[in-house]
Each structure stands twice: as C-alpha cells, then as structure tokens.
Amino acid sequence: MGLSNMVSGTDERSRKRGRARGLITNLALVVAACIVTVLVAEALLHATSGIHGIALRRSACLPPVWGPGKGLPWVLRADAVGRQIDGYGEFDCEFRINSLGLRDDEVEPSERPGGTRTLILGDSVTAGHGVEQDETYASQLDEMLGGAGRNEVLNCGWASWYTTDGAYVFLRQRIDEFDPDLVILGFFLNDVADLRPDWWRPTGASLPDSLRPPRGPEDPRSRAPGLFDRARMFLGRRSYLYNLVRERLAGGVRRASRGSDLFTLEHALRGEFPASAVMLFTRDYPPEVQKRLELTERLFVGMDRLCAERGAHFAVAVLPADFQVLDWKRERSGVLPVVFHDQPYVAGKAQKVISEMCRRNGIPVVDLLPAFRERGTDDCFFRWDPHPTALGHTLIAEELAWFIRSEGLLDRPRSTP
C-alpha cells in the first residue's frame, strides 16, 4: 500500500512537471511567435515607409541635452553633448552645449573686447532643430556681422525653455550676466498658444519671475533623461510599429472620449489637436486666444523695458511657418482653405497681428515672411519636418543682418529711460 502510494505520488509529480514543461514550451512558442510577428511587421513597415502615412515621431529625435532649470521648467544642460536624429532620415546633427548652457561656442560673458553683443532668444527654430551649430541663423548672423571682437551673436534658443514667457524669465535672470547691446526674440507662430500663464510665479503676477508647473514637472525635460526616456526615444526614432500602435491608440482614446470631430479651435486650445501654429490665422479669436495675445504683448513690453533699463535695444523677428511659404506643404497639411471646422483661415493674419502689437509699443519688428515668399525655395525647409534647413537659416540671417543695419540697432546705444 505504501509502495503503491509512493508510485502514484511520483506519477502525479511527473504529470505536473510534464504539464509545467508543456505550459512553458507553449508560452515560449507564443512569445517567439509574437517576436517574429513584430519583427516581420516592423520590416514590412520599414520597406513601405515611403507610401504609408505612419512616420517616426519627430519629438522623439530631440537630443537628451536638457535638465531642470532654475526658475524654468527645463534648460539646456551645461557641457552636454547629444545627437539629433530624424526618423525620416533628413538630418543627423550634433547638439553640443557650452558651459553657459547655450548651443554656441565657448564665450566668457565678462570679456568684451570692444565690439557689440547680440542675444538671440527663441524656440527650436532658433536653437537650430535639424541643422549643425554653425548652420543656425544665429551663427551665420555672427559671421555676417563680424563675429567675436566686432559684433558677437550668442544663440540662446532653447536655453530659455521654448516660449515667450520662458524668454522673458531667461532675460530677467541673465541679462546682467551677458550685458547685451541688442536682444532679438525669434518669435514663431505657436508661441502664443504655448504660453503657460498658470505656471507663472508668483501666482497672479503681471509678469513672472519664474515658471513652475502647478503640480510638479509635466514636461520630461524638466529632469535629466532616465532609462525610460532613452528607451522611449530609441523606439520613437527606430520603430514604425511602436509609433503606429502609439498613434492609433492615442487617436482611438481621443475619439472614444470626445467624439470624432477633433478639428475645432476648442480642441486645439486643449492641446488635443497639434494645430497651435495655425491658431492665429483664424478669422475670429475666442477669449482664450485674445487673453494669450494680451499676455504676449505684456511679455514683449517687459523684455523691452529690461533692455531699455540697461541701454540695450530689443527687437522681434517673426519667423514664418513652412505652410505659408510652400504650396505643397499647405496642401499636404490640409490647413487651407479651412483650419478648423468652425473657423476659416485668414492668410497672413498672424504676422499682421504680431507686427501691429510691436509697432504700437515702439518695438522694432521684422516680418520674415515676405523674404521667404520672394526668395524661398523648396530647399529652405525639410520635406517632412516643418523646420528650416541650413539654407532657410541663411535666408533668416541675411534678413536679420539687413534689418539690424537698416534700423541702426548696433550703431548707437539706446538711451536709458
């Protein structure tokens, strides 16, 4: 009886081990089949990348050269080095940050060998998204004006986060350190929509002395990139399947929760449709857009006063969007003749509104759109990415050099009020 029980127990354990091995084998086969399916799907998507509509995420190609900022959600990390690689294969460039947190050559702020100094503030266009450092319009303008020792130009793009309120905070914090003779704000059309007035500190201030998310960091660049960030960026750059699933799931969730029609100004204001660059072309501005325009004007005036108090000039350069210059980009983006289902498109309105805002406050302004329409070509912008190429940066630099000379912005010091 005892022997029989022992044999029976041994058989039962053998059967359990057999079932466990079978389960593990089946699980391994399922995992292997999934891996093979993913690899085959990825290969097919890469092979047909020229004809299907899913592209690698452009935001994933931002170089990991940021870190938490003092008074700003994030800044460029001093002495950081990274590469910016586009999923479309349009660019692969180095991002090297100097010891001052600028994408520029090393410079000693206190050393002024007798020439002038210009600071260029701005977002990704100014920082040089997609181009090498010496191809940015700030670097080319530096060469056109004579460079260090004569008329030095420093690229502060992205050093001030990426919005107009960030540029104001950066200038307030560091204007004495750099002691500029001229400050130019490279203003792009999404800057109004991207303002974060609820981040202004102190709360309720007419102008901020710092920007801080009300519930902690909401932008991954407010901290140094970790393992998860790097893995996500790697997949975003390399995997079509990852981006396909991600975009389809995100779109499905939006449609399920808010309906199929996302192309309204209301949805754009909530960030549910990436159309902030065309928001200022709508016929009728709702109260939220009017409020952000008023805040923008307040920031312009604040920067102008900061410069005036130190005898420096302040000016604004309004940068054009690619769809304003190239017809085929407008057609592909679908922004004409209707931007949103509830708002018609008014060509040129954005530039007109911002230029009038500057002029009524006595701020020199240059609209770069006419120059791009007259002299710009298909080669001035990347085909898939909306940013200007090195040739586009050259055109910006040439127009800024003409503007600075024609306005005499470096010929005479500004009288201190």
What percentage of the residues does DSSP assign to strands (E)? 5-15%
Largest β-sheet summary: 5 strands, parallel
CATH topology (level 3) name of the largest domain: Rossmann fold
Class per helix and strand makeup: alpha/beta
The CATH top-level class label of the largest domain = Alpha Beta
DSSP strand tally: 13
- The proportion of residues forming helix, as a percent range, comes to 40-55%
Gyration radius from CA atoms, angstroms: 26 Å
CATH architecture of the largest domain: 3-Layer(aba) Sandwich
Count of alpha and pi helical runs? 13
Number of domains: 2
Order of helices and strands: HEEEEEHHEHEEEHHHHEHHEEHEHH
Outline the low-pLDDT stretches: 50-54, 258-263
What is the CA–CA distance across the termini?
A: 109 Å
Specify the overall morphology: elongated
Q: CATH homologous superfamily of the largest domain - what is it?
A: SGNH hydrolase
Mean pLDDT: 81
Task: List the strand order in the largest sheet.
Answer: 6-5-7-10-13
